[in-house]
Each structure stands twice: as C-alpha cells, then as structure tokens.
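Researcher: Quick sanity check before group meeting.
Model: Go ahead. Protein one:
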Amino acid sequence: MVAPLRGPNPDVSLIWLHHSPSAGKCECFTGAQVKALGVKPGFPGLILPVQSGQPPGFVIEMKSDTGRVSPELPDWLDHYAAQHWATAVALSRNELRSAAA
C-alpha cells in the first residue's frame, strides 16, 4: 500500500510513512499475542510523523469501498486532531493522495 505512494523519486517526508498492520487481518498471532505486542483496536493504518506546514503529522485510515471503520477509530482520530495532527479516512489511493497533499 505504501510503495505506490513513494514512487521512483519519493518526497523525503514519505520515508517516514509507516503502515501499522491490522491485527484483525493477521492469522500469524493469537489475540493475546497481538494485545501483548501493544496493538490497539482502531489505530489508524498509516502514520506520517513529519511536520509539513501547520500540522505536526498526519494519520490516515485506508478503507475499501466496502470497508467499515472500527468503532474505536473516531476516538483515535479525535485524539490526533486534538494534538493538531491532520487526519483522514480514504477510500482510494486518489483520496489518500488528495488528503496528503
């Protein structure tokens, strides 16, 4: 998901773009192991901790056309917004690029 955004000559800030895998999609761990690792429900999938202009960073949740936002996600987005971070939920790469611009 992140590689197409970086392209052949990525913006320097995109080297800091991090994807947090969804614990619900991973069959490699049990629920207890995921919880022990510190995974929190609803945490946004992409985080860019780089200040570019006013916000100190950007958190984004990517969803497909049929994807659903978890009940916990709005709390995470509200938390980051209260810290003056930019936040977004994007349904496509185009929406992601627009939100990140």
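Researcher: Fine. The other one?
Model: Protein two, sequence then structure:
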Amino acid sequence: MCGCSEMDRHDYGPCGEDCGGAAWQPMNTAPRDGTPIQADIPGNGCDNIIAWVGGYYDGDDKSCSAWTMVEDQEPPESWDDGVCWRVNGDGVQSVEPTRWRQLQKSTR
C-alpha cells in the first residue's frame, strides 16, 4: 500500500529538540507536488527533508505516491528505502510525519 495511512492526522506531539523557525502546519496541508519540506517524524527528529513523490508501485502493481526522504539523511527504521509506506516490507506500519513547515534557508 502506498503513502502513510493517516495523512489528515493532527498530532502535535513534542519534537524533543529545538524546532524553532517557521510555523508548523498539519500534514494534510503539505504540498503534494514534489516540493521538499521539513517534517517532524516521531523518533526521527524534526529536521527531516521529505517530499511527496510519485512513480512508485504498490504490491498490486498500481502506480502511487508516498512521502520520501529527499536529502542524504537517515530515515526512520520503519521506512523502506527512505519511503513512508502504509506497511513496510516487514509488515510494519511506517512511522508517519506529524507536521511540516517550509524549508528554512539553513536546512538546505
């Protein structure tokens, strides 16, 4: 299955590190056009650079899109090859980004 399962989630849990800067927004408002964004992913910090990327195929060989790491960063363990699938190759749900904001000049 493609993408994360709860794209409209409004989880604003603590990041556990300094995440100052532009205002955070719920994931259901994030651009789905390939634009890189900064995302807060539980257990992986809030400096993740991801984008909604197409061109993937699910287990039924259907075309789909998903949140994907677009910088050379360590993705969450539950993401396969830097992609947030509903269920990864081990049958485990991927940890989903909870909020996003526009990239700050210092994060690029």
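Researcher: One line on it for the slide.
Model: The chain has no helices and five strands.
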